[in-house]
């Protein structure tokens, strides 16, 4: 089990195999994930306060580079393998969307190819 702290919300015990975005949803946090956790939309962005993983998926690396986004990570591409503290960037409240997004698979999609965080 890992400890997940979401700034301004609270601290939760989560399974280490759980995707960060899915763990936040289970904790009742209205984190967006419009593409269903497939590393396509970047709505599941989080900013790490502490405990940022040193690895990332190639899919996460590519979409962040393509969009020119820095200083954030994609919650759908991160496993809760360690204690971490995050700041949620995109929430349902105030977004104008009808829901957080499509259902998310238990496993990282597309299948994870891990690289060191650049």
Description of the molecule:
Helices cover 14% and strands 25% of the residues. The protein has one domain: Roll (Ubiquitin-like (UB roll)), CATH 3.10.20.30. The termini are far apart. The mean pLDDT is 95. The protein has a 5-stranded mixed sheet, with helices on one face. The protein has a two-stranded antiparallel sheet with strand order 4-7. It has helices at residues 20-26, 58-67, and strands at 2-6, 10-14, 45-50, 55-57, 73-74, 84-88, 114-116.
What is the count of structural domains? 1
Oligomer: single chain
Query: Based on the structure given, which CATH architecture is correct?
Result: Roll
The general outline is globular
Structural class: alpha+beta
CATH fold call:
Ubiquitin-like (UB roll)
What is the N-to-C order of secondary-structure elements (H for helix, E for strand)? EEHEEHEEE
Query: Main β-sheet, in a few words?
Result: 5 strands, mixed
Low-confidence stretches: none
Mean pLDDT: 95
Task: Give the termini distance in whole angstroms.
Answer: 27 Å
């Amino acid at each position: 089990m890992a400890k997940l702290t979401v700034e301004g919300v609270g601290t939760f015990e989560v399974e280490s195999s759980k995707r960060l975005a899915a763990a936040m949803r289970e904790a009742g946090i209205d984190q967006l994930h419009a593409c269903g956790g497939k590393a396509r939309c970047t709505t599941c962005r989080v900013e790490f306060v502490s405990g940022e993983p040193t690895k990332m998926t190639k899919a996460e690396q590519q979409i962040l580079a393509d969009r020119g986004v820095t200083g954030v990570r994609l919650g759908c591409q991160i496993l809760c393998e360690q204690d971490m503290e995050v700041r949620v960037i995109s929430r349902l409240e105030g977004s104008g969307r009808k829901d957080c997004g499509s259902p998310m698979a238990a496993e990282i999609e597309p299948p994870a190819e891990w690289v060191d965080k650049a």
